[in-house]
Amino acid sequence: MDATEIEEAAGALEALGLLGKCPVTGIFTPFPVEHARIKVLNPAQHSLNENQTHLDQLRGDLDELTLRTAHLQDDTSLEVIPGVGDVRKLIAGLADGSRTEVLTSQPGGARDEEVLQESLERTERLLERGVRMRTLYQHTARFSPATSSFVGRVTPLGAEVCTLAGGFPRCIIFDKEVAIIPLADGSHGAAVSRNSHLVSFLSDAFERAWSAAEKFTPESDRPARAAITSDIQQTIVSLLIQGESDNRIAHVVGISLRNCQRHIANIMKSIGARNRLHAGYLLGKEPFNGI
């Protein structure tokens, strides 16, 4: 060993209490192992025991706090996730941990192609594990090639997809234990709830909408397409009678403002209405039989 190696080795042995150096002569003196046990091991064990005692006390305090606040745990406020990236990570984590069923309701018509592509792999993993998945779209999503392609990929794997004219909330429910809902300000964030009462309410709302929905069929199914178009028209008529604006009707039905105005113009023409007020009067007087 050279001088540097000897110096490093001596320093390591000294730190362990196996070697001592005289401050006057600089001569090293070896010590027995028991000396090292007293100098190094015993203090370390004492510190470890103190930490273990502290951990045991903290664990006991938290357990007691859990028992005392058990009745409050189900009433905690919503957890707000402001960023869309964090929302997607949360959805991915909850989907990977789901055990029985995932319910998703997505109003707003056609889905964004990027969002569908991002969720495809996650959906496939979920279905391959045997988790049931039911998705509710608006009727207008049927006319979207991207949405139809997505449905065509996941339904053979066991996913169930239905559509409805409107009237259902946007949410994702995992195992009927955790719900993700949009923020009231319309931003891209989300709120997460584990409150059993709220999750149960949202699950019931989903089931009611699902029972009235129509199974998503290929666009080539002409009878189904005609029935869906009629259902959309009836929803628009109902909103016209209520005096809703074009923007509001377009939002509820899940179509663009231009398409909404085209539907309204066709409806008014078919019933011979001179204006919106006249249309409301005629539609309220006689049932609308479609265009």
Describe the structure.
The strands form 2 sheets. Strands 3-9-8-7-4-5-6-10 form an 8-stranded mixed sheet, with helices on both faces. Strands 1-2 form a two-stranded antiparallel sheet. Strand 4, helix 4 and strand 5 (132-138) form a beta-alpha-beta unit. By secondary structure, the protein is of the alpha+beta class. It is elongated and about 115 Å long. It has 3 domains: 3-66, no CATH class; 75-215, Endonuclease Chain A (Endonuclease, Chain A, 2-Layer Sandwich); 222-285, Winged helix-like DNA-binding domain superfamily/Winged helix DNA-binding domain (Arc Repressor Mutant, subunit A). It has 10 helices and 10 strands. The protein has helices at 3-15, 33-68, 84-97, 113-128, 145-154, 196-212, 222-241, 246-253, 257-271, 276-285; strands at residues 19-21, 28-30, 79-81, 101-106, 132-138, 160-164, 171-174, 178-182, 190-193, 214-215. The model has no long low-confidence stretch (mean pLDDT 84).
Output the CATH homologous superfamily of the largest domain.
Endonuclease Chain A
Beta-sheet strand percentage?
5-15%
* Helix run count: 10
CATH class of the largest domain: Alpha Beta
